[in-house]
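Side project, low priority. Logging it here so it doesn't get lost.
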Amino acid sequence: MIDVNAYLGHFAFRQLRHNTAGQLLRLMDKKRIEKAVVSSASAITYRSAHSGNEEVAADIREHRDRLIGGAVLNPGYAGWRDDLKECHEKWGMKALRMYPHWHNYKLTDPAAMELIHAATERGMAITIPVRVEDRRQQSWLVDIADVSPVEIAAAIKAAPQAKFIVMNGPGLGGSILGQKNNGLPPNYAIEISLLAVEISNEVGKLVENLGEDRVVFGTGMPFHYPDPAITKLEILDVPAAVKEKIRSGNVRRILGL
């Protein structure tokens, strides 16, 4: 398995366990997860998100065979172009992670689109978490809404050459992103960690509507336990070859592993 949605570092509003490279790898070994794309949880609330990238790069330096860096950048922060270059050229990060509501911008803002295009030119995937935490569990100090599927769809449509992964999103199977013939380019995949399998079979419907090449495995660890996502994949009623694509094949292709 390759987990496309994992984190290292600290989060401002709650304690995270398994949040160093060594601790995360031990958890991955227990759950038989081969590799993980990791980004900085700290960067979500740092004034300069790039400080979190520096921390992640240092932590995974000796583990790049299994931990793949994802850069968190804020297009409204001065110097992001140099930061993107360092993340990609110096540290080999293969994905960009964007938090528009936490970093106070819209995905379709000119600066955000410039960042998306710049990362795309470098062959990096654009990963967009719909949420960090359930809004009902947030600190009294913040009130951050989920990123709307409509906002994400607009960015996807505006950057057809980009490779998007939409993650940490409940109910995506019933949104515009999960619909068949939705008028969007097929340049995005959806990660399963917050999707339903048993009740509404969101994952199965996504495979049917979008195709088996556009659904990917992720856990959200250490914000979430990895077991639910693993179980969702195990009980998914699709052929073994399709499960293998979701488990690792699609992510390998998208990230060029």
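Brief comment: Helices lie at 21-31, 50-59, 80-90, 110-121, 149-158, 202-210, 227-235, 240-255.
Revisit when time allows.
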